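Q: Sequence in, structure out?
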Amino acid sequence: MKSKSALRKNPRIAPRDGGELRSNSKDDFLVVAVGAAAGGIEACKELVEYLPSDAGMAFVVIQHLDPKHESILAELLSKKTEMRVQEIKDGAVVEANHVYVIPPNAALSISNRMLQLGPREESRGMHMPIDHFMRTLAQERGNRAIGVILSGSGSDGTLGMAEIQAHGGVTFAQDDASAKYNNMPRSAVAAGCVDHVLPPRGIARELARLARHPYVAGDHSAEAETIVSAENSGLSTIFHLLRRSTGVDFTHYRQTTILRRIQRRMVVQKIDKLEEYVKHVHTNPAEIKSLYQDMLINVTSFFRNAHVFDALKSKVFPAILKNRAQGNSIRIWNPGCASGEETYSLAITLLETLGDRAMQVPIQFFGTDVSESSIVKARNGIYTENIQGDVSAERLRIFFTKTDHGYRISKSIRDMCIFAQHNVLNDPPFSQMDLICCRNLLIYLEPMLQSKVISLFHYASRPTGYVVLGTSEGVGVATQLFNAEDRAHKIFVKKSTLAHQPVSFSLNQSAERDVHAPVGVPARSPDSTWNYVEAQKEFDRRLLSQFAPATVFVNEDLEIIHTRGNVNRYLKLAPGRASLSILKMVREGLLLDLRNAIGRARKENTAVRKQNVRIKNGNGDSGGSQSSDSTLVVNFEVIPVSLENLTELYFMIVFQETAASPAHKGPSRRGLAAKESEASLESVAKLERELAATKEYLQSVIETQEATNEELQSANEEILSSNEELQSTNEELETAKEELQSTNEELSTVNDELRNRNVEITQGSVDLANLFSSIDIAVINVGSDFTIRGITPQAQKVLGVIPGDIGRPLANINPTIEIADFQGLVSQVLNGFSKVEKELTDRMGARYLLRILPYYSAEKKIDGAVITIVDIPPLKARVAP
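A: Exactly. Output:
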């Protein structure tokens, strides 16, 4: 074996350009998860042997270990590297240039740079410690997580490697030639989640290179330079190549995500600058396909975020069944379904909700994705055995069929699920959906595309349809389209609106893909049916605008959602920040009456009419052509609109003009007094109307305030009650904490005792072994079941036993000295005789003394026998000369 100093200076792993492999930040270093199973010890030893001791990375080795035996892997690896190698203790903080080894009978995870040990759980299938740790590592470290799969049987690590790849990390697998057992590496490679397939020493060399790459080494100046270059030309060139090759336009996808995926491919291809990568893409069409697959991030799992499926089972599916019309099928759409796990999870959850009624209710599931390879896998419905960690044993038994290399979803579920390649941004959507489950797709889109997708989901849903989004997603500014049904689990229900929501999508998919069509080619003209419909819409629009009364539709928040007719005489845009609130847009003189009318209509749920309301400047603001004191007398009616399939209350406000104020021709002596009297009476009447409206408004405010006070009082009582419950819970937790501390102290004491006992037992075993080896007398230790427990070297010569006879029955040995009824003599001692002594003579005439003594246990019970054979020297030898 090479010396450690020789390994440190080995040119095969020396840093390029003589630089040290360090991370720029103390905490911002790579963490490498190394998974291994059968035959993995040799591979792990070779890997760490070729790693530089100052690589600036932390290595966590997760191996399949026997839960009942201690592991010596840490000791073996420490002999191959100068890095510190230690078996993991719960709560250990990960540090660079350290190697951490999982202990037996434990599950490992990482959080806040701390390694956390948990109990090994096998109740849901095979133990998959590599998958479990890699998943937590990917979420913890993102693009600074590295996955390595070495020799082993089974498929553990495949799902974890896919998770690391999805978060921007790089993955490695051992090649077939060097792997003693290649099932684990092959499973990861077949799943498409491995970037490099190399022998262990090659993996070590690539890891050393990765530590120097700007993308993963924390070189933020280089990252900024890459982004600036991308804004100039590189990124647009890559978008152009992707659009031409795949038909998918990534221009309005979230730029930070796109840059991370491109940078990850640069790491894999060993390219440091974006300009070089653009040239590489131009000359290597296969790289475009690889980048496209990276962009899609097709990583999912069965029952991901299981609490969401619990909410669907307890709230959403029962509501869908309740609202389902007789004869209608339940329709569920899963955009961005990837390889189908989520679609099948929805199907299983719905079937469990239906129970015995499943055969009576028609069900249709639609899973769509832009990736053709993912759709093919979803249709096949074949998954690795790793899904045992996500799917319960009962569900595996009911809804899956065991295959040679994993599990396949049952045919009955596959028949009700339809999978299709579909771009939710361009292709026509499905319709009449009871549930749309689209999780973790919107986070990759810019706000403009997010709004488009949310509007499309509103269009595709039934009046009482539901939408489920990811934990970091929401409906954004489209609150007029969906109400939050369950904010914690991001479940929304469609809000039926009177306003038509514009939804745009391409009906000609081939035209979307043909980005190089010649300029000037006219678009295909619509057919005659389309022309007729558009003409009819235009006719209706002009008829309503010219002859229908001025009408405004507002929602519960009093925001204008639609108008008909000429409303400019009654409404105007207020100065300042634009707002659609009708109370901010009404003209002077209309506010109090309109607010009171809406309040009464809301409270009494009946139409409210106001007459002879005077509005100033009712003819519009036309630039000063009219006098400043012109008025308009109007009547208006507020009508509440509440339909059966509308979840929100709306108001329709209809304005009708009655008579304008008379034109003033100038003062005359004759009518001056009459005019002054009329103006005085009009002013008094106006003030009386305003006073009455103000009183009515104040009365409604008082009633609202009293109702609010009652609600606040009730809420205060509930808060007090909750506070008492929380106080009680806190006391219980304090008591539990004290009990846990006490238990912890007891466990620490027991642990110390066991440690001391182990030291004593180890020392006693060593002493006994030395004692046996130093005795020049034939001694055999026999158990109560007549099996041989131990022998001395002299016993091998006298009785012909060998070390391999330990553990075998005494009757199976063939002593070189003839002992009559040997086993019977031993039985006498085991049955209570104090001892047996007998002289023996071999064929050569030599004499021996056979002595059999009882072997007592700690409880003073006979637990075996000790057989000794002593050589009796001849008589002459015993007499002194």
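Residues 672-774 form the longest helix (103 residues).
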